[in-house]
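Input for the complex:
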Amino acid sequence: MVRYIANKFFYMLVSLFILISATFFLMKAIPGDPFTSEKKVPPAIKERLYEQYGLDKPVYQQYLKYLGDIAQGNFGISMKRANQDVSEIIGQTFSSSLKLGLVAIVVAVVVGVLLGMLAALYHRKLMDNVAMVLAVLGIAVPSFVVATMLQYVFASKLHWLPTTGFNGPLYYFLPVAALTAQPIAFIARLTRSSMLEVLHADYIKTAKAKGLGWMAILFRHVIRNGIMPVITYLGPMTANIVTGSVVIEQLFGIGGIGKQFVEVISNRDYPIIMGITIFYGILLMFARFITDIAYVLVDPRIKLNKGKEG
Amino acid sequence: MKKNKSLLLLLTLVLALSTLLAACGSNDKGASNGGKNNTPAENGNSGEDGLAADQTLRINLSAEPPTFDPALAEDSQANTVLKTMYEGLVRVDDEGQPLPGTAETWDVDGVKYTFHLRKDAVWSNGDPVTAHDFVFAWERVLSPETMPAPTYAYQLYYLKNAQKYNEGEISDFSQVGVRAADDYTLEVELEAPTPYFLGLTSFYTYYPVHQSVKGDEKWALDASKMIVNGPFTLTNWTKGQTIEVTKNDKYWDKDNIKLNKITMSLVNSSASELASYKNNELDRAGHPHGEIPTDQIPILEKDLKDELKIKGIASTYYYQFNTTEKPFDNFKIRKAFAMAIDRQILVDKVALGGQIPAFGFVPPGIKGINDEYRVENKDDYFAENIEEAKKLLEEGMQEEGYTKLPDITLLYNSNDAHKKFALAVADMWKQNLGVDVQTQNQEWAVFLENRQNLNYQVARAGWSADYNDPMTFLDMWTSNSPHNDVGFKNEEYDKLIAEAKATEDNEKRNENFKKAEEIFVKETMAILPLYYYTNVGLEKPWLKGVSLDFSGAIDYTRAYITEERK
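Predicted:
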């Protein structure tokens, strides 16, 4: 197990290094810089800005310096927002995305699994059809359409909920609903198909034959096995949701990290672009990592060392 | 029917979610970032002159100001907020007339200005606002040591020796044309006569700054650290989400300030902004600090006619020709293209914001001698005429020896409105001249770089006023101007502008501006004017006293809310 983790960890570092390097050079290759603007900055002032931010040096020197800085945990300061620390900006915006994201994950899993289970248990009955129609809709309708529709119905027409902002519990309803429509649908379908499979498995028949109660079968066997694919999906989904949805954050005016990322790229705010990329990279890799570990813990069929030989 | 059904299903889903969320919500107290939007005002305005008891104004900024340091600000959102927090030497009213601000009176003697500051003006911490604060602030803007270098330092280049000091040619700030004669007298000397200088002192780069900021790089990022001299102080800035300013009781003119608070959301979506406005979460939406979806304007003109405010502003939307590149190196071809489109139709059907068709470059709203420059000098430099245009195009092609025009691409920056407009214009060229023009969009910074490097044939552009004078539109086309990205070079033009810069004689200046514009548009057609911009905003009937200046900058400081708002 320790060797397995160390191995994974090493590959994570390598991937991170490649990610950093590729992003750095690609970012520098895009035309324009943080000080490109329609009302041109006078050359003398622009030169001084380049000097102050080290942009006057050759790209490889900037790269080496950047590597040195992040090795010491220094992500630098924004070039567009005078004197703001990159790590501070990431911290602040990520906290909004995280708060929204965590609520969304819980909702997505609970509702998704519930819908999926109902659909499986009432296979080919009305309940199943309703749940699956909902699921198809959730997958098919893009989140910005859902978001705009929710705003229109619940804010503009009914005046029940605020349209935008993120200032209290009430503000969670619409963005969470818009954010979870897709994952709920996905989880519901996953749960349904794997539960159906499990329900027809031999060991369930055995359990029934042994005279085990329906509830016991459901909880001890069906759910535990039926939920496996959801766990696989959980890692990427978590990473996806907590890194912030650009569209949702923009439509609802939530100061999250997704909204931030788009802005800094169009501003060419180099240090923040790098900072958020690295942050995303680590988060995604970590989510994968946890998923792998969780798999091992839940499914006894996966054996670390022997698995590879076979 | 089918649509209804899916809507119903979606609603069911949402309802299911809502129930669940309600359960989750209780664990989430930490998430409420000061949900105190509806705290009633406490300054006893209720009942007085039909004012609402709660004098909280709610607006949206479509972009978050990167900083509230007046020396470093450079966007219209920052302008909107800074105007509430700071006060310069003068304030400017709707008509562009200077009103006393921090300076009570002033004397002008050619290039020498003496400002007499009011003695009752204090900072929000109680310190008096003195002439030294202005000297400190202006030195800070111009000093080569300031980190990061203020990009708008050139707004102060009107001061004697300011440019030299900023570029490091001289290192002694006392040689720059600003001096505190005593605590309440500020003496300013300019490089050359500048008739619009008084108006400039109301611009944020000229604001005073409290001297405690020295050595503190982060002062303008933290609501608790900002010491200001304007009608409002910054009381909350949750990055990416909310900005809030609250009435400053130390402000000298506080009796005329009725708003108690201004809360600003930071939503970068015109659709959401409109929805919030309709849901009564905003008292004002749209320009200059927000956005309303363009395609909604015709609907709003019917539904919310009384709340829709459209006002011309001093900005011009135009296409520019690369006059060094085929085929637009030929005057007749350029002119043919300019004459072959119907601007009124473009404005009515595509741009939709009540814009004014443009046939010149200096927009309405800019001061002339007695009236607006555009009123005194009509923009009749050319007229739309398809037959004439066809003839010109033929002549131009003959001059160049074309049997067929080279491929032409119209370049614009990625944006829905620009795209629609470009397609409509290209279509008119096709219909009226029989010319095929490709349209291509590029991301903003890429686009700018290509345009600035003359790497285009015909490209979209827009220009807004920096100050209220035709100079802000005309000095950008001199041969050595960094903003001249059309390859236009004309000695007489350069001379006319140089003369206008050196004289105080208004008649002479106006004469030169008129001639220069004629050379640039009528005789050269280096650009293809399309329309003069408008500010499109929605304003609730209960919001009064909002002031929009010639450039479209908005001043909320004297606004108030009437009882109509429940």
